[in-house]
Amino acid sequence: MPYPRRSLALDSTLPLGQPSATELSIGHNVTSKQEVDAVMEQAQMAGAIIIKSAQETFWGGYAGYFQDPDQHLWEIAWNPQWLIEGEA
After folding, report:
1. Where are the alpha helices (DSSP H) in 1-88?
2. Structural domain containing residue 30
3. Burial class (CB in 10 A: 0-12, 13-18, 19+), 77
4. Domain for residue 5, yes or no?
5. Does the global pTM surpass 0.85?
6. pLDDT in the model for residue 67
7. Which CATH number fits the domain that encloses residue 66?
8. How many domains would you assign to the chain?
9. Alpha helices in 20-71 (DSSP H)
């Protein structure tokens, strides 16, 4: 199910821009809050710009946003309701 553009702009704190063919966010789910923080730090060290620091979410998870050097928007998220294969 698509996430509305206005909702993505509000959640990421980026301004709502003109529609484009490449406008999207890439979601990367991880297994813990600590892993969210580690991925965000690794991305920043690789040249990404932190758009929204990792924090508790309204839906009960933990997530943050960054833009990579090509300006793709990434959301790094941990959702306590999702078990990732291999988790106990």
Report:
1. 5-12, 33-45
2. 26-80
3. buried
4. no
5. no
6. 93
7. 3.10.180.10
8. 1
9. 33-45
Average pLDDT, stretch 55-65?
96
Confidence check: pLDDT of 72 > 60: yes
Determine, yes or no, domain membership for 2. Answer: no
Is 5 a residue whose pLDDT tops 60?
yes
Q: Determine the residue type at 2.
A: P
Encoded amino acid at 88, one letter: A
In a domain, 53, yes or no: yes
Cα angle: 32, vertex 29, 3; to 5 degrees:
135
Tokens read off for 80: 């306590």
Nearest to 60 by CA among 33, 88, 28, 87: 33
Query: End-to-end CA distance of the chain, in Å?
Result: 28
For 37-47, b where at least 16 C-beta lie within 10 A, e where not — what string? Answer: bebbeebeeee
Mean pLDDT of 32-47: 98
On whether residue 55 sits in a domain, the answer given is yes
Mean pLDDT score across all residues of the chain? 89
